[in-house]
């Protein structure tokens, strides 16, 4: 369970998140929607404790992130295959297995967890290749494996579909659903409404640093033809393609 209450984050004096509250419940896939620059990634970084808010509170299963002794065991985070600020990204000259082993040792985990997560993300056959040789989709899978390594009860993914082929997208769909069905709180930032419709339980819409909707997907779509129509009627995206602030 991840709760944000009245969270404000400022960069250079500008509020990127402005009194944001949201709740990601156990056993649910919660999708974060919002145009480019709306504040989704900042919200995810704040929710897992990478960014400390200037005001408001963050709770992961009732605890403030800085009070959690082993954060990776409480919340798994994958902010994108090449994201700056990702937790301990892989060294290109290391193999996928070596990267995960290093994380396992750092986290006091058994080596069998490495084998388990490599299988779970479909990298068992590529585990002994150097990460430099991995495709974007494979790096996504490795990042997801790292997040899953300590088997955390909460998970955060920032646009995890990027770079995955159709098999990968179908695999990820099943994986995410399974992670939530096992009782975890799973939060995903996404622009892919088809994936949200197929797998989502709850949606949180971020607009210009504010949360403008936080409710079950079915309630959000009710009275509209589909998710896209419901979304457009709420935030009316610009046609310029520019950032949302
Ligand atoms: N470290 C930073 N320093 C200064 N400004 C930042 C920083 N990180 C993000 N921002 C700004 O905060 C705003 C929100 O960015 P954020 O990456 O959270 O948006 P987003 O909704 O995830 O966008 P996208 O869909 O493009 O990934 C943007 O205006 C961005 O330029």
TrEMBL record:
Gene3D superfamilies xref list: P-loop containing nucleotide triphosphate hydrolases (3.40.50.300)
Q: Which InterPro entries match?
A: AAA+_ATPase, ABC_transporter-like_ATP-bd, ABC_transporter-like_CS, P-loop_NTPase
Acetylation keyword on record:
no
Question: Per UniProt, what is one GO molecular function of this protein?
Answer: ATP binding
**Does the record's keyword annotation contain Transport?**
yes
Q: Which Pfam families match?
A: ABC_tran (PF00005)
Q: Which stretches make up the ABC transporter domain?
A: 2-233
Keywords noted in UniProt: ATP-binding, Nucleotide-binding, Transport
The organism's place on the tree of life at top rank = Bacteria
Q: Which PANTHER family match?
A: ABC TRANSPORTER, ATP-BINDING PROTEIN
Family membership: Belongs to the ABC transporter superfamily.
Kindly provide the name given to this protein in its UniProt entry. ATP-binding cassette domain-containing protein
Q: Which organism is it from?
A: Gordonia hydrophobica
């Amino acid at each position: 369970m991840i709760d944000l209450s009245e969270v404000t984050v400022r960069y250079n004096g500008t509020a990127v998140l402005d009194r944001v509250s949201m709740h990601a419940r156990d056993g649910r896939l919660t999708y974060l929607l919002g145009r480019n620059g709306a504040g989704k990634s900042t919200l995810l970084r704040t929710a897992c404790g990478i960014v400390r808010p200037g005001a408001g509170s963050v709770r992961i299963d009732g605890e403030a992130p800085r009070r959690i002794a082993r954060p990776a065991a409480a919340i798994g985070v994958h902010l994108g295959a090449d994201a700056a600020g990702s937790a301990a990204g892989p060294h290109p000259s290391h193999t996928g297995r070596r990267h995960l082993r290093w994380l396992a040792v750092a986290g006091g985990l058994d080596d069998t967890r490495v084998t388990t997560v490599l299988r779970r993300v479909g990298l068992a056959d590529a585990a002994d290749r150097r990460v430099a040789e991995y495709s974007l989709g494979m790096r996504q899978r490795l990042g997801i494996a790292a997040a899953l390594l300590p088997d955390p009860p909460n998970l955060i993914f920032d646009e995890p579909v990027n770079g995955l082929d159709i098999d990968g997208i179908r695999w990820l769909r099943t994986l995410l659903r399974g992670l939530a069905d096992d009782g975890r709180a799973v939060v995903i930032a996404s622009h892919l409404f088809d994936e949200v419709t197929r797998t989502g339980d709850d949606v949180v819409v971020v607009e210009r640093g504010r949360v403008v909707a936080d409710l079950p997907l079915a309630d959000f779509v009710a009275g509209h033809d589909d998710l896209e129509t419901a979304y457009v009627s709420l935030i009316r995206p610009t046609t310029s393609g520019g950032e949302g602030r």
